[in-house]
Automatic annotation (TrEMBL):
A Pfam family that the UniProt record links to this protein: ALO
GO molecular function, one term: D-arabinono-1,4-lactone oxidase activity
InterPro entries attached to this UniProt entry: ALO_C, FAD-bd_PCMH, FAD-bd_PCMH-like_sf, FAD-bd_PCMH_sub2, FAD_lactone_oxidase-like, Oxid_FAD_bind_N, Vanillyl_alc_oxidase_C-sub2
UniProt keyword Transferase, yes or no: no
Domain FAD-binding PCMH-type: 11-182
Protein name: Decaprenylphospho-beta-D-ribofuranose 2-oxidase
Source organism of the structure: Saccharothrix texasensis
Amino acid sequence: MLTRLSGWGRTSPTVARVVSPRDVETLANVLEQSRERGVIARGLGRSYGDPAQNAGGVVLDMTRFDRIRRVEVDDGLVDVEAGVSLDALVRALLPLGLWPPVLPGTRQVTVGGAIAADVHGKGHHVVGSFGDHVRSLDLLTADGSVRTLTPDGDGSALFWATVGGMGLTGVVLRATLRVVPVETSYFVVDTERAGDLDDLLARQSADDDRYAESVSWFDATATGSRLGRGVLTRANHARLDDLPAKLRRDPLAFDAPRLFTVPDVLPSGLLNRATGRAFSELWYRRSPTRHGQVQNITEFLHPLDVVGEWNRGYGPRGFIQYQFAVPFAAVDVIRRAVRRIASSGHVSALNVLKRFGPGNRAPLSFPAPGWTLCVDLPVRPGLGELCDELDELVLDAGGRHYLAKESRTTAEAVRRGYPRFAEWRAVRASVDPDGVFASDMSRRLEL
């Protein structure tokens, strides 16, 4: 069926033939019949740009591969198909007292997508990214065969090229993931309000290692002495003794309401200088410094999941999520970027600043030791020029962009930001010499 597809940012829709296979045999047949324009897998469509689009070609909707095949409680392992969402995984694991070590900012991501983007969460400084907890995966390659890959030994190069490889080495069919025990589904949260960006950076640098999860929001509209003021939120998993009596009755409860869904009728321009400043002031004021607050999963990790299709709030022109990482030594790039955004006239309300721990062995994995900053910027005139300026700041400092978020950079920027790109490209060429797996992103960035 011909379908118009876009990423979560809604910026560059294209039309492809979408196929929803139920078994591996069907998938292999589709690969064989779709070599002219290529094939790419798609999960729940939460990448912000175009890695799960394929104009004029075939897109594989993998959401029917949605079985949780086995949970080994004692060994802390779960065997799942690639179309299982992280939301479904959490719902299945929590009653068993288990938890996926890495959850990104939304649970509406499939396991296959989480591997392809090597997603990270608020705990990267402690637990790394999603690929660090994959014990094996089954990959359907361009020749129609299925290969079982592990992080070490034969096939490890292809394993790590698939982690963070944006679906371009093959179709992830199934994975075995490491999971960890938890006593409750809650977090004990410490919140600190910082008066400016230097205060925020200092607080986040001081004792992050005491927390399993850490993230800060900063005001991207404030200037002068309030530049980058923000709210630092850090937490550890709550133990049973941490809960008030009423929550101990069901300590593994999963509270995930959906309050409403944004209709697809809102105009562009609702987020502007006035509304952005008002939102930022409200968000800053509603988050006073407090310690030891008990919060549920959605409240702490996934507040946006309570609003369905929240991306529609930016209107039909959409938005870009600009995320970059730079080494710790290049922290001044964070200051310069925040200053430039705040003075640009472009407005972002949903802003994130985090610290990354060590990276992994995947050549295209985004996280590396340092700082990562993320802003959501509505599409309007002049945005491209602002992003080009930020690109040079980031790349000159040895930084990089996150492929799961970006939607407008260049092939040169990817090669500058990912020094092991040639290594990844060689593995991809060895397993898919004819370029069967292709996407709008792969053509745009010459991947």
